[in-house]
Amino acid sequence: MQSFSLMALPFIAQAPAAPAPSPTAEQLLDEIFSGKGLGTGLGLIAILIVAGLLVQFISYWIASKVVATDESSFANSVKLWFLYLLAFIGIAILTGVLFVLGTSQDSNWLKLLGLGMGALLTLIVLFKAPMQVYKIGFLRALGFLVIAVLINAAANTALSRFLMPAAFSGKDSPFAQISTLP
């Protein structure tokens, strides 16, 4: 037994030091509300959220300029975004209620009905909302959605290339600190 201990001694001596203790949830909340440390990271996250919203509005606006020149305005793109937001919140609540009811009653058909209705309502809202806001037909609404998705994907890719590394890299980033919570 002693010979094994002596053989392990060089490996034990070279072992790295124990990592610094990670901050507790209370310490992180104190930093967030005091404006120290995490404040700049949270500010960057807020910038990312606002930039994402602006990208969404601008992509709707540009797509509306292509397919509906009469009714295209930035105000209508904001109106469409809020319409989508309210509709999808309602669809999520309805789908969730039906799914919970199906789970509580052990009814697979009720769960499938809820998920199917949610999917169908989502498709209807995706097409009907731009048709109502911009007063366009189905094919133009399809074109609107394709153009808006392409613009959104390109702009969000650019945003993620330039802004996201600052939010996710380094030991002082908010995500790195939150991921080390006990």
Describe it.
By secondary structure, this protein is mostly helical. The protein contains eight helices and no strands. The longest helix has 31 residues, at 74-104. The chain is flat. It starts with a helix and ends with a helix.
Strand and helix layout:
Elements: H1 2-13, H2 25-34, H3 38-67, H4 74-104, H5 108-134, H6 138-162, H7 164-168, H8 174-178
Uncertain regions spanning at least 5 consecutive residues: none
- The class by helix and strand makeup works out as mainly alpha
Please estimate the helix content. Answer: over 70%
* Mass-distribution shape: flat
Q: Approximately how much beta-strand content do the residues carry?
A: under 5%
What about the largest sheet? none
Structural Rg: 25 Å
Mean pLDDT: 78
DSSP helical segment count: 8
Overall strand count? 0
Q: What is the string of SSEs from the N terminus onward?
A: HHHHHHHH
- Measure the end-to-end span: 37 Å
